[in-house]
Amino acid sequence: MNKILLLVYTAIFCQSLASAAQLAVATNQSVEETTNIAYQLSFPNFNHHELEVILWITNLKPGPLQLRMSRASAGRYGTHEFAKNMYNLQAFDVVRNTVTLTKKQAGYLIDNFQTSKKLTTKQIEADVYEIAQHGDKVKIQYTLYGHTIDGTYLGIDETHAHINMPATILWAIGLEKEPIQIRFELPINVDWEIATQLKPISDSTMVSYWAPNLTYLMDSPVELSQHKSISIAWGKRKSTQTLTLVSHSNDDDTTLINYFNQIKQIVAEQEVIFGELPKFDYGTYTFIQDIGSDTQIDGMSHRNSAVITSNIDGLSHQNNKSLLEIVAHEFFHIWNGARIKPKSLEPFHLEKTSLCSELWFSEGFTQYYGDLTLARVGIFSQEDYLKKMSTMLSEVLGSPGAKIYSPEQMSRYAAFADTGVGGSTNTNQVNIYTSYHYYGAIIALALDLRLRTEFKLDLDGYLKHLWKRYGKTKNAYTSDDLQLTLAAYTHNAKFAHEFFKNYIWGTQKNDYDKLLSRVGLKLTKANTDKAWLGTLKFNFTKTQTTVVSNALFGQPIYKTGIDIGDTILSIDGIEIKDAAVYEDILAQRKPGDELSIMYNHRGQKKMANLFLDEDPTLKIVSFEELKLPITEKMKTFRTEWLASKVVAKNQQ
Ligand SMILES: [Zn+2]
After folding, report:
1. CA of 308 to the centre of ligand 1 (A)
2. What is the reported pTM?
3. How far is ligand 1, taken at its centre, from the CA of residue 364, in Å?
4. How many CB atoms sit inside 10 A of residue 584's CB?
5. What's the DSSP call for residue 501?
6. How far is the CA of 341 from the centre of ligand 1 (A)?
7. How far apart are CA 339 and CA 369, in angstroms?
8. pLDDT tens, residue by residue, 220-269
9. d(CA 495, CA 476)
10. Are 243 and 285 spatial neighbours (Cβ–Cβ below 8 Å)?
11. Rounded Cα gap, residues 389 and 382, in angstroms
12. CA 367 to centroid of ligand 1, rounded, Å
């Protein structure tokens, strides 16, 4: 592999004075860069989190023009009312193309009020506006408020503009297939640079970009900030592509280089699984990273870039595991998700939820490989990795929702569970839902162990098969296709059929202890003999202890009828003042002991009795630790599963 490390500092910065006419129809540029749609984004009030957008549309046909803000964002499965942050919408007929700019105006709104006629805009839906009468060229402008730094929304302040397009772009209905120009007017007196997967317009000053259509623009996040970037040429000579890390964080060069080296390990490890990286558009893949104390923990994968956001305190090896977990997950999506795609998400709807039954695979298998990659490159120790898998197994196997809903059905609940308008407030999600990420990940674990121990195959090979059949060929898949590919890969249609019937379309669970024992691991209770009344959450304050979550079906506390919103007065006569008192009472009890709880329900004092259970939390422990006999075969299976494929390949 020919790898060259280039450290590029924030330096390229230039501002030009472009006229409105150049923006809208760049007739002197190449055909692909000539567009009828152009956006211009500027930041005159970034201190107050505002972004100004101007949209120019030319060659418009007569008839009503409808403009929409998105309600959904690809990669998120819930809806978001992005229009809630839009205001000051105005529209004008453009009657004169050329605008003379004064120096004072440079970098701010290019305005031609005097030369335009104001048009009437009518709000016909919460997020749709109509302009009934207009000429063939219009200018639309609006203000957006953005104060959320994550993979979905918009974050504007004096340090940066972190832009996710669905939260930003008002678009013309019916013109979605048209190519688009987008131009960023950088504020004066800041040293911002632009990071994006969008193609820069060749003869521009690196502030104008081009997208072949609306879908592509919406898939292209942009970070404008004083950031550092590192690039590397990746691959053999003919297929060399560039991998770039753009990091808006407070790290020194050495820390950043060390961190990028870890990313390179992740990329190499995942590349071996598929045998190749996808061909990135314009030959570049960019990790767009934003780290800050007011930043959300999030990751969002796109075709040729990923947004990684976190509030961790710097990128040093001590605290970057959680971030690299996001990196490994999002990078795996460049195959599974961005290119091996479920048919149900084609096309992705911007104005409503896209219902998908295959998130157990596109998200869950990606979850599995994100963690497995970190184990294979050694960022996770075996202990770290087994702890991760234990958490997922505990969560899913203990979930009442996973007992009644199959992974397919659970995937469809993403419409409500994937943070958006609804969220989890006042729902019964604890009883009807479990994460499709975890649900899918434990299925991947079972399938991987079965393929290894029953077929002398592995999940890596199955994924590679899917890449060839559905990723490279750009054929979206259905869950039937996933089953048929498993049948072809294993040459065992019966196995594939039963696996899908029981564990994907049905609610049966694999025997995890049995499967893990084949690699010398045991699935056991984490806290033997620890008394437990259920997974209820409390809010402890100085004056009272309030129940803040619904009880889970079947657990001891569920049977008492104690409800969300009730306050706990005492347990076995002891007043509950804080978490320590509560933990102490449980620590002194044994499973099977009876407990009496005094509580207040809507102003009424009540008493309930329950019998404690044993804490059902699970953990995976090695046979070595348990001093159980372990065979060479078990050890080999485990090594082949968890050891680096890159190292194995280099040793061949
Ligand atoms: Zn994901």
Report:
1. 12
2. 0.91
3. 8
4. 11
5. I
6. 13
7. 16
8. 999 999 999 999 999 987 789 999 999 999 999 999 999 999 999 999 99
9. 23
10. yes
11. 11
12. 7
